[in-house]
Specification:
This protein is mainly alpha-helical and about 240 residues long. About 65% of the residues lie in helices and about 5% in strands. The chain has 2 domains: about 70 residues, Arc Repressor Mutant, subunit A (Orthogonal Bundle); about 140 residues, GntR ligand-binding domain-like (Four Helix Bundle (Hemerythrin (Met), subunit A), Up-down Bundle). This is GntR family transcriptional regulator.
């Protein structure tokens, strides 16, 4: 890149979501992080106050989560957090790992020097955000790193399918998990190197391993928080 080249990176957190999706994202994170437990009822007025919206988008967001299996609608009582298991967590990460691995392999075969340069900028900014302990930017730049790889794959439909899986996972919360950021600081540069060398098989393998390891870290955190209370045997 020349000195006059400008690379514009948009963090995930800088884009305003539709109100109902903001509600859904907020409640998903409460559920996956263990801040609310299966069987808890969600008070719509508290959700509305926390997100800063009216009751209508709250109901729309909760209905969307009902279709995703995160909540149940109990007649005359409201929305209740649905049960979810360790295997549910593993399944989400497995699906993300397979789709992301395929996209990484496709990206490695055709990625351009300009796309590599954008990823390098993101990675530098990510490392700086980690040093500054800025978890909000760590989350946003981590998302941006993966987004650039997905775009480089040139497979829009597959990327959209991945997006429907990824939204189930707690982006900001996940950036605070002990061990996750440390692992990412090592794994992201390895991924970038595989992309730079057009090593499709290696890029796929690294991406799948990178994401699957996250399932174990998240499950460990949720176990420590007593989410399942020994109702489900650990594997």
């Amino acid at each position: 890149m020349g000195t006059n080249d400008v690379v514009v990176i948009h963090d995930r957190t800088s884009r305003r979501q539709p109100l109902a999706e903001e509600v859904a994202s907020y409640v998903r994170e409460l559920i996956i992080s263990g801040e609310v437990r299966p069987g808890d009822f969600l008070r719509t007025e508290r959700v509305a106050e926390a997100v800063g919206v009216s009751s209508t988008p709250v109901r729309e967001g909760l209905l969307a989560l009902r279709s995703e299996g995160f909540v149940q609608l109990v007649p005359r009582r409201g929305f209740m957090v649905a049960p979810f298991t360790r295997q549910d967590v593993r399944d989400l990460f497995w699906a993300q790992a397979r789709l992301s691995g395929e996209l990484a392999a496709r990206a490695a075969r055709q990625i351009t020097a300009q796309q590599i340069a954008r990823i390098e900028v993101i990675l530098d900014r990510y490392q700086a955000a980690v040093e500054a302990d800025d978890t909000e930017r760590v989350a946003g730049l981590g998302h941006a790193f993966h987004r650039e790889i997905n775009l480089a794959a040139g497979s829009r439909r597959l990327a959209l399918l991945l997006g429907s899986v990824v939204k189930h996972l707690p982006n900001r919360f996940y950036a605070t998990i002990e061990g996750q950021v440390a692992a990412t600081r090592t794994e992201h540069p390895l991924l970038l190197d595989a992309l730079r060398k057009h090593q499709a098989h290696k890029a796929r393998s690294l991406m799948e391993q990178h994401i699957l390891a996250g399932a174990d870290r998240l499950i460990q955190v949720l176990e420590e928080r007593g989410l399942w209370n020994d109702q489900e045997p650990a594997r």
